[in-house]
Specification:
Elements lengths: L1 H13 L3 H10 L4 E5 L10 E5 L11 E7 L5 E10 L2 E20 L3 E2 L12 H16 L8 H6 L1 E4 L2 E5 L15 E8 L4 E25 L3 E2 L1 E2 L2 E4 L10 E2 L14 E11 L13 H6 L14 E17 L4 E6 L5 E11 L2 E11 L5 E11 L4 E2 L1 E5 L4 E3 L9 E4 L7 E7 L4 E7 L5 E4 L7 E9 L2 E10 L1
Parallel strand pairs: 13-18, 17-21
Antiparallel strand pairs: 1-2, 2-3, 3-4, 4-11, 5-10, 5-16, 6-10, 7-8, 8-9, 9-10, 12-15, 13-14, 15-16, 16-17, 18-19, 19-20, 20-22, 23-24, 24-27, 25-26, 25-28, 28-29
Helix pairs in contact: 1-2
Length: about 475
């Protein structure tokens, strides 16, 4: 259970007795808790944040309630965040009964004439018998149950055309859309062309009655964000940073609490959209039945309009609701961004992950790196974008080489290591066929660095490394 796990950390790091930990668990049953380490609090003493439940709201509430307590359960600060309530509107026509829809599909036709032993149309009885024998020879090896007598009994002549009903069994995988397949016929036209025709049918409702409208509310969410924060100077082998809901010292050193929230609104079409390259369903292909035309008559009888959460960026905000830093989302991004902060001295690096679907419907991700200064505020500056090459170990202890994986190339390339302030720390050459390069860290001060791969004069790949 998450709460027990959090409180165990609290007890281990602060020396709180087992009895106190049990008391905390008891009094916070059902709450979503997070541990706020002391280095992120002004007085240096760790605290606990928790919300009313793991989703941050009570049923029917309009605000997200978040509270911060010390280890004696004395309240330090409380916050309320508005709840975003996505919903969708359904519009549909009533059903007025049932109907049967049919579709006949003919395969490609084949030529047959007197050279194949088929009499002319002047003798239709002989022509029919010859065509029955022809079809029997065609089917005898794929379906031994077919006999001349079965084909004879299932044959007829109409307007100088011969039709033969072909018996078939479902479940052998030979026929497409077999759940709707009703009959198979072989036909011979007067012109001497022949083939197979397949008749499909379905029983479905008829939707042409009165329209009705109803709304459904989906799971409410808050615009509160809990990012992962890393203090480079204090990184060690086990923590890798903490999910930090609130802090007094990470972003600046005043008494006010700071936190991160999503810039978001409920808007039409707020959910992710992408182009699907999947084939139409059997119902759509055969009968024109879709999610919006449920009876296949060509008229819309069902509409669903989504009013989802539309995210436009991230903000670092203080307890007085003043925005300190803003991270706008790219125009083509969709869904919810995620953020990770790295602090080194007075500089903070924000790594924000964005995603979207391209024109082919493929899922695409990119990363933007922002450098922010604790003494300033405003829209954060993008210093690097994209993240494709990887580095291990990362973070790395001073003196441990960092190995960077790079793609192969047709020419010699350059790896450049830059500090967060933009100064170049080293340049390394990579041969065309090399796929790894080792970056020494002996002379690199603890901090955050960008590793940039340059190929044929163009910057192609970027990643960050941390040296502690």
């Amino acid at each position: 259970m998450k709460i027990i796990h959090v409180i165990t950390i609290v007890a281990a790091l602060t020396g709180v007795s087992a009895v106190s930990a049990q008391t905390l668990v008891k009094e916070m049953t059902g709450a979503d808790t997070r541990f706020i380490p002391g280095q992120y609090m002004k007085n240096g003493e760790a605290a606990i944040y928790f919300s009313k439940d793991e989703y941050g709201y009570w049923d029917g509430s309009t605000m997200y309630s978040a509270e911060i307590f010390d280890f004696e359960l004395k309240p330090l600060k409380s916050f309320n965040f508005p709840i975003l309530r996505p919903y969708f509107v359904l519009e549909e026509r009533a059903s007025t009964g049932t109907q049967e829809k049919s579709r006949v599909i003919k395969e490609s036709r084949f030529a047959i004439d007197e050279a194949d032993g088929i009499p002319p149309t002047s003798d239709m009885e002989a022509r029919r018998n010859a065509f029955i024998n022809y079809i029997f020879e065609t089917l005898r090896y794929t379906d031994p149950s077919v006999t001349i007598a079965i084909l004879q009994n299932g044959s007829r002549v109409e307007d100088n055309s011969v039709f033969i009903n072909i018996p078939f069994q479902k479940g052998n995988g030979w026929y497409q859309f077999e759940e709707y397949l009703r009959t198979i016929e072989a036909y011979l036209e007067p012109s001497g062309m022949w083939g197979f025709s397949y008749r499909y049918t379905i029983q479905t409702q008829k939707y042409n009655g009165e329209w009705s409208t109803r709304s459904w509310e989906e799971v409410p969410i808050s615009n509160f964000c809990t990012p992962r924060c890393n203090d480079v100077a204090k990184l060690n082998d086990w923590n890798g940073g903490v999910y930090l809901p609130f802090s007094q010292t990470f972003f600046n050193d005043d008494e006010a609490f700071e936190y991160v929230r999503f810039k978001a609104e409920v808007a039409e079409g707020g959910e992710s959209k992408f182009i699907s390259d999947s084939s139409p369903s059997a119902k759509e292909y055969l009968f024109g039945i879709t999610d919006t035309d449920r009876d296949g008559d060509g008229e819309t009888d069902y509409k669903r309009t989504t009013f989802g959460v539309h995210y436009t960026g991230l903000e670092v905000v203080n307890e007085n609701n003043q925005v300190i830093y803003t991270f706008p989302m790219p125009g083509n991004a969709e869904g919810k961004p995620s953020v990770e902060f790295f602090k080194s001295d007075n500089s903070i690096l924000a790594q924000v992950n964005y995603n979207w679907h391209d024109e082919q419907g493929r899922y695409v991700q990119t990363v933007r790196f922002y450098r922010i200064d604790k003494a300033t505020s405003g829209v954060a500056k993008v210093v690097k974008e994209e993240n494709h090459i990887t580095a291990q170990p990362n973070p790395a202890s001073k003196g441990t080489p960092v190995v960077v994986d790079v793609p192969v190339s047709t020419s010699v390339r350059t790896i450049r290591v830059n500090a967060l302030n933009g100064s170049t720390m080293m340049n390394l050459m990579i041969e065309a066929d090399e796929t790894q390069v080792s970056i020494p860290t002996d002379n690199l001060p603890s901090g955050i660095y960008f590793v940039t791969l340059t190929d044929k004069g163009n910057t192609s790949e970027t990643c960050k490394i941390i040296v502690r």
